[in-house]
Design a protein that fits this description.
flat, two-stranded antiparallel sheet, mainly alpha, 51% helix, 237 residues
Length: 237
């Protein structure tokens, strides 16, 4: 990072205590300061971004962000740049048609159909953005998908509400949900199985959600329902 630029930005942020003025003046000065900083960022291709898991901000070069973003997208092959194209209208139309087909086939109720239908005025495409991990070497980026208004978000939440309780019940014997529960479990293990040679390991799965194939994911859900001997969930087949 250009040291001269950092110094200039720091000087812009220093506001002497003697220069305190009424609130209206302070708001005016604040607006000028923000505009000046934005101008300097644009001139130097700098991004000011909130960091991941901390309350500080990170100054980074625009080309670094673009390079890391391209590397991530090339690696996962789960995203693409749309450019000027807008697939949203077609996605809304196809989603609503699919829901209507399910309703006509009586796979879902009228109430469920109305709940899940996409309102065109409220929907928007999901988008990918990043938070820099300033606490890690090389400042890698944490990818985040913002999709709260995506056309399929209501379907996703609907299925999650149906399936998550079933999975939680099935996996409760091998699931630890809190630090207190972990401490209690470790105490029980230490009394029966733990020895001086016992090793405890953690596993960090990289890009978990983009690594799960859709077909295999559906087959895993079917396997879970077969294990639970369930043909339908809350009336939904």
């Amino acid at each position: 990072m250009n040291q001269r630029l950092i110094l200039e930005i720091s000087n812009d942020l220093i506001i002497p205590s003697q220069s305190f003025k009424p609130k209206v003046t302070n708001k005016k000065n604040y607006g000028r300061l923000v505009k000046r900083l934005k101008h300097k960022f644009r001139l130097n291709n700098i991004i000011l971004q909130k960091t991941d898991k901390s309350k500080v901000f990170h100054l980074g070069k625009l080309e670094d962000y673009r390079k890391k973003s391209k590397e991530y997208m090339d690696k996962t092959r789960a995203y693409q740049c749309l450019g000027t194209s807008d697939p949203l209208p077609d996605l809304i139309q196809r989603t609503n048609k699919y829901l209507l087909d399910l309703r006509l086939a009586k796979w879902i109720t009228q109430k469920q159909y109305e709940l899940l239908c996409v309102n065109q005025s409220e929907a928007e495409l999901a988008h990918l953005y990043y938070l820099p991990k300033a606490h890690k070497l090389g400042t890698p980026l944490r990818p985040i998908i913002s999709g709260l208004r995506h056309p399929t978000i209501k379907i996703s939440k609907f299925l999650d509400d149906l399936l998550r309780p079933l999975f939680n019940e099935m996996a409760k014997q091998t699931t630890i949900e809190s630090g207190f529960e972990l401490a209690a479990q470790l105490d029980r293990w230490s009394q029966r199985r733990s020895t001086k040679e016992t090793l405890f390991c953690t596993i960090d799965v990289t890009d978990l959600y983009t690594m799960i194939p859709q077909i295999e994911g559906v087959l895993a859900l079917k396997k879970m329902l077969d294990y639970l001997k369930m043909k339908q969930v809350q009336g939904l087949k």
